[in-house]
What does this fold into?
Amino acid sequence: MVPALASRLLGRRGTDTLEAREFWAVEDVSFSVRPGEAVGIIGANGAGKSTILKLLTRILRPTQGRCGIRGRVGALIEIAAGFHQDLTGAENIFLQGCIMGMTRRQIAARFDDIVAFSELADFIDTPVKRYSSGMNARLGFSIAAHMSPDVLVVDEVLAVGDWRFQKKAFDRIGEMVGRGLPVVIVSHQLERIASLCTECLLLDRGRIVMRGLPDDCISEYVTKGIQTQQHAKEDLPFRVNALDVEPRGALQSGQWITVRLRGEVTAPAGPHHRLGLRVRALQSSQIVSVVDLTAQEPRLLEPGAFEITVELQLNTGKGYFSIETPMWNTQERRELGQGPHALTRVDVAAFSGVTNLHPRVHVVTHPPLKDRELRSA
It folds into this structure.
């Protein structure tokens, strides 16, 4: 502290000069959100997403520049942020309302709606220090969404809740956007950003690297993320040079896509080497399907160029999916590398879930027993 204080007093350091161990958490970021707009902020961990929200809500002060929000803010930045751990859920509702500048009468008028939405009626008189992280997130979002905010700011904290409440919360956010509220949301749930937001910001190391439509920013984000994971080795027997997917753009569930690969077998393939085509759901990183291309005829055994065409029917739910080309060793049970990839999106699905099982339903109805007796008489 003494050297730092001396440097400041002697004027050896300006506000825009960084010391050896310092860095800009957020730099040259500018954007505005008008009524009825929802801006999604995506990026890797540590990119500066949550810092931006803390700057907007004045939890942090900017070193340079300015930021602000006009109107009452409904903010959900961190789990249990602003909650007094020794107070009950009910008491914290009134505490948060007072912080937002509401009167006790205004808070009481919304109290029942907050408790009902959070589904915590049985625990509302329990101190919040007894709550799980999901219960804290439920109560926090319910307060933020029901205190008549002029602006809603939401961080990734909703991810700790169960999937049913997540859907309920995002539906509520959609309703608020439809009523004309400005919304800023940070989330790693990419399809939520795609379906909810009107604009998207892609951050990397505190800077905006792309802004525009959610689909474009998500595609760029996922593409770069997969590229950083590609670690194909020179001694692998397979090399995939190109990967094309048709048709491009948003698809309907059940629609067929054609994947074309071009590459070469660089050396005689061993019995344990495999080249595959993998489909992965980006929201959960769950592997939807893997096709072992080396098990097809003719076998990819001898050196030479190859062209492979694979037709896939995407009987999946809505969401983003990456088409990947992994290489692995069945004996060592590990992935050795990954070639090119592509991104596709299913936008329309007539069902909910991961996979369409194409149900065959046959329903037979019978009239009540009294009606049958009258008809027979």
In short: The chain has two domains: 23-221, 230-348.
